[in-house]
Every structure is written in C-alpha cells, then in structure tokens.
Specification:
Strand content: 5-15%
Number of helices: 24
CATH architecture of the largest domain: Orthogonal Bundle
Strand order of the largest sheet: 2-8-7
Distance between the termini: 46 Å
Amino acid sequence: MMLSPNPVPPARQLRDHSADRRMIVLAGAASLIGLAAAGGAWLLLTLIALATNLFWFGRMSVASADPAAAHVGIAVVAIPVAGSLIVGLMARFGSDKIRGHGIPEAIEAILYGESRLSLKVAILKPLSSAISIGSGGPFGAEGPIIMTGGAIGSLFAQCFSLSAAERKTLLVAGAAAGMTGIFGTPLAAILLALEVLLFEWKPRSLVPVVIAVLVSFGARPFLLGAGPLFPFAAAPIGMMWQAAGLSLGLGMVLGVEAAVLSSLLYRVEDLFHRLPVHWMWWPAIGGLVVGLGGLIDAHVLGAGYANIQALLDGALTLRVVLALLVVKAIVWLVALGSGTSGGVLAPLLILGGALGALAGQVLPGPAGFWALIGMAGILSGAMRAPLTGAVFVVELTGHFDALPCTIAAAAGAYAVSVLVMRRSILTEKIARRGRHILQEYSVDPLEFLQAETVMTADPVTLAGDMPIGAAIDFFTRADHRSYPVVDRDGRLLALASRSDALRWQVSGALPETTLAEALSDASQPLAHPATPIGRVADLMVESGTGRIPIVDPATRRVVGILSRHDLLKVRVVGHRAERDRRRGRAPVPGG
C-alpha cells in the first residue's frame, strides 16, 4: 500500500526553500533588468528630445526643447499630424501593440499573455512614443517606459526556463525600474507595481521589484541627474488639520474630474471606432485636433513637464491655467482616443494640477501647494492607485511634509472614483475587450482556513476486507464517486472509486478478492485536519482525485473527507463575513 509520504509537514517545515532560492535568482536577474531599464529611460528621453528638436526646430540635437518655444506659424497644425501619421504607419506595419498608453497593455500581457512581450514591441514602443510626443502629442513618457521596461524584463526572462509567474515578476521589475529611471520616484514605482501590475504581494515578486527599482534609482544620477524632478518652494499651510481637511474635500472634486475624463476618453474612442476609415489613419485625425489646440495655446503641446513645474511654482497666469484645464484635456482625450502612442501620468498631473491651482485662488496658502494636491488626487482617482498617487507627487517634488495632505486628497478622490466609476481609466480599456479585472486585493481563504473547518466529518468508509463483489454492488447505489478504504482500526488504506468498481467488473476480477488486495498498489493522497485548504486543492489537481481523505496525523485514522463541493463552502464563509451584519458583543472564550 502506497500512501503520500509526509503529506502535511509541521508548521515549522511549511517554508518552501526552493521558492526562496528562486527568489534569490530572480533578485539577481532583476538587478540587471533595473540597470537596463534605467538605460531605456535615458534612451527614451533622448529620443523624445531629438524628435522635438527635429520636428519643431529643424535641428539635430538632444538638448531639452519645448514645442511652446517654437515659432512655426500655421505649421503648428501640420507637425502633430505628420508625427501621428508616422505612428499610425508604425502600428499598422510594425505592431499594433504600440498603440495606447502602455499600462493597460502591460496589465493584459501579465494576466492573459503569460507575461510575454516581443522584441518588436521593445523597439517600436519607445520609438513611436518619442515621435508622438516629440511632434507635439500631449502625452508623457511614463506609459511608454513602463511598457518598454516591462518588455526588457520579459525578454530577459524568456531567455531562461522560467514560469509565467516568474516572468511576470521580471516584467513588472522592468516596468517599475523604467518608471524610476524617468521620474526618480522609487517608492511610488514599487507601489504602482503592487497596486496596478503585480496582482499579488509575495516575497518572490516584491523583492526582485525592489532590487530592480533601487538599481535603476542608483544609476539614474549618472544618466539623468539627481534630485527631485519638480522641486518648488511652496510649503503646506500652517495648520495641518485644516490643510488635510481641505485636501480631502479637493480630492473628492478631483475624483469627479477623474471620472469625467475617463468617461469622455472612452466616448471619444467609441467615436473613432465608428469612422469609415482604417484605424491607421486615426492618429493623424487626433494629431489635427492637437495642432488646432496648439494654435489656441502652445502650452498644450508635448509632454508638458515645464507646465507641471510652472503650476507648482505658481508662475502661470489664470488664462494659461484655464487653457491647460480645458484645451489640454480636449487634445489629450482626442489624441489618446485615436490610438496613438503615449502615456497618461504627465497629462493627468497637468489636469489635476490645473484644477488644484484654480482652487488655490480661493483656498488659503500658495496656489502651487494646491496644484500639488490636485496632482495627487487626479492620479488616485483615475488610476485607482491611492498610495501611488499620494507618494508619487511628494517624491517628484521632494515635499514629503505634504504627505498627510496628499494622502487625504488621494483617499477622497479614490472614494469618489470607486462610487461613480465601475473601472479605472486603465482597466476600462481591457474590459472593453471582454476581460474584466478587479483591482481589489484580499487574503485567499483557501490559504488560511484549515481542512477541518469545511471537511465532512466521520465519512462513510469501506472495510479493507470487503470483497470487490460486494464493493461493485455497493457502488451501484452509492451517493458519491469514491470512499475511503480503512483497516479494522479505521486507518486509511486507500480510496475506492466508482471507476475502480467498473474496471473490476469489466476485467472479470475475482469477486472474493478484498479491497485491500485490489488496491494494494494504489498511491493515495491524504491530508490532515490542520492542512490549509489550498494545499488540499493542490492535491486534488495533482492527483486528479475529487475527494481527499483527512486523517489524524498520530493514529492515521480517517476523521473526515474533503470534496470539491466542500471547497465551495469557503466561498460561502467569505460571503457571510462580508454581508452578515449583526450587533452584539463578541463571545468570551470559555464563557
């Protein structure tokens, strides 16, 4: 008789040392990916600067340039169209994976594509984004670098024999490292990985992501410089309780703004899908709207990092702030809805900052401080990532003293967003492809509940000395497909199933043969009352058995059985914990 050896080790032995070793290997790989992603961030920003100089100033240079400083007359309309047309051609004849702002595509690759991204995407995504942004597209570099860094991690992982979960870890490590390389925000990049990309919180995934981010952050000063990307002088207003309360209220307003922007974006996208022209031409149509917006106010062109700095400094006139709030929103929504290549973080920072700066005209304190609060709120509301939004802006500016207020704004925006929007601006795009994603994490009850909580106690058993003739007759009227076979002391010998009875009947086995003899070569999985239910479910999958006997670890007597149906009881327990509401004091143990 073959029983599973040591099916449930003691608690002190539950640690998976092979998983520990894999984590160390992944951490080592992540350090290389972090360095490569930092280089990718530098390359992307260099390409954007080169494209900006070529399109707007007609020169070969990688020096920082702003389209708003160019004086090209009516060509301000033609340049975005030309750049967008190139992007459309690249998507049509290169890879349509470069369309969009990058983060939804990364999420989709993680959840539905086994974290596999192609070399073509790794090359074309930064190139198309540089052309799009450099020609005046109202986007940021963060979405493209998340996709590009993710592709670097995925391609590296595909060079080795790794599982899909391990590839996901390295993909996300590359994405987070790329974001750190662009913005110099290591903690926010880690939080973005946790809130948006990983869909888990495990040492195997968290440690490599942190390693990649720290390596990228360490390499950034040598490539792009050190210090906050947007330092400014304004400090929080004196009374923190007042500032936090006002930030919470402003955050709720920003949650409404986030919901409106998300709704409008997908309405625009629907309008493009109704056009009687191939999608290759849509970015050019979006580019035309961008050019017309540039005629109204050139500040709406390009990534707009200078606008973010000016909002924080309080250096923009009210007219320009209004233009950023309205015109920038229109050109960004139309351009992004057209399917061109570019990110959402920088535009959201501008739109949230503009609304915050307007509120700062009537709220106490400097307008730049309220622009900062607006940026935190809009990111939280639009992306459903409140911790990322709150921390990202303080790392961008170096104003960690504003963290209580950014957390308040992020919480207010997040609460309103959840109430009025079914999905975030990131996951709505995926949902429209029929793939619905829930951005809520909870502990899997299968991992902490034990078998004894849901097993069927004292199950019906079959005696080991029962003749198989009697067993065949028993299974013709049995309620279940299988039953434990036990010896005279109730100790588990095997599991007899209806398929066993059918096999004996067809083969003409001797009816006087006992069950113990007929099943002497069977390998039987088993579990103990303290076994986590998740491990029992794994045993079912590994053995193909729908019922697992539960035995006492000391006596090996059968004390219960756990079936697939019993696993569904766990869902009932979870739903009851969520929905049953009652008053009363907790029972006193032993009382």
